[in-house]
From TrEMBL:
InterPro entries, per the entry: Cro/C1-type_HTH, DUF5753, Lambda_DNA-bd_dom_sf
Name of the protein in question: Helix-turn-helix domain-containing protein
Domain HTH cro/C1-type, chain residue ranges per copy: 18-73
Annotated CDD domains: HTH_XRE
Length: 289
């Protein structure tokens, strides 16, 4: 049994396995499409994870590839239709890339975040997140209802932090701890900093602070690195993914070489930052504790 996997990860894993089976046979997509009387675009959408194929279509592909090993798992994966993902109703206020990222984040088992400007979304209080959402009114039409829905989605994402199967590590620039946005006052920031301390008490959450007064190892914008669990016999659900956000551009990076560079960069930043205990002391000091 493969267990429950959210729709985005299920679609991605199935796509990568079907693509691997074709490539192992040394045949191209045009040959397969002709043999099955499919359009090449249909096979391409399946293999790139743009669409979730039906069990019937997966069975046709497996038969054509003469793939008996793990075929039962792949058919189960195709038919493993869980309930509608919680983030899908927010498609009216979040972009496709943002929704895809939330699905990936939801299924990750290790999250590493570097933030040099704002605090990580998973660690934000509602007042802090609301002020950030309001700022976008300067560059786009965002109604109070849309702002509330975006904030609500961010708060809902944070539920995954209570899953002790997840390991979350953040390296935060001290400037992000000090910076206020919009109408956020001293009380709002004090509440936010105390929230960070409370979260850092959880055994699966680690927060490191990179001090302003120290020499920084590299000039690098915020990013999140995601690692995923493995499935029996089929291996990792997904290769590692990096997410970057520089308004208005949101990017999911999946190139193995680029992702590995971010992996190395995160280690560089973490080594330069304060250790966990010293970071807590710095946050507590800024919070007036």
């Amino acid at each position: 049994m493969i267990g429950e996997i959210n729709p985005i990860l299920r679609r991605r894993k199935l796509a990568s396995e079907l693509r691997r089976l074709r490539e192992d046979l040394g045949i191209n997509g045009v040959q397969v499409s002709r043999a099955l009387h499919w359009s090449t675009s249909k096979l391409s959408r399946v293999e790139t994870g743009q669409v979730a194929p039906s069990v019937k279509d997966v069975a046709k592909l497996l038969k054509h590839y003469q793939a008996e090993e793990n075929s039962g798992l792949l058919l189960e994966l195709a038919g493993n239709h869980t309930a509608k993902a919680w983030w899908e109703p927010y498609s009216d206020v979040l972009s496709e890339t943002a929704l895809e990222y939330i699905g990936l984040e939801d299924g990750a088992r290790k999250i590493k975040a570097w933030n040099n400007n704002v605090l990580p979304g998973l660690l934000q209080t509602r007042p802090y997140a609301t002020e950030l959402a309001r700022l976008y009114r300067a560059v786009e039409l965002a109604t109070p209802t849309q702002i509330e829905r975006r904030t609500r989605a961010r708060m809902r994402r944070q539920q995954l932090l209570t899953d002790d199967r997840l390991t979350y590590t953040a390296v935060v620039e001290e400037a992000a701890l000090r910076r206020r946005f919009g109408e956020a006052d001293v009380a709002t920031m004090r509440e936010q900093l105390r929230h960070l301390l409370k979260l850092s008490d959880l055994p699966n959450i680690t927060i490191h602070v990179l001090l302003l007064e120290q020499a920084h190892p590299i000039d690098l914008s915020s990013f999140v690195h995601l690692e995923f669990p493995s499935m029996p016999l089929l291996g990792p659900i997904s290769a590692d993914v990096v997410y970057t956000e520089d308004y208005p551009a949101l990017e999911l990076i999946e190139s193995e070489e680029r992702v590995y560079r971010y992996f190395l960069l995160f280690d560089l930043l973490r080594e330069a930052a304060l250790d966990e205990e010293a970071s807590r002391d710095r946050i507590a000091s800024l919070a007036g504790l």
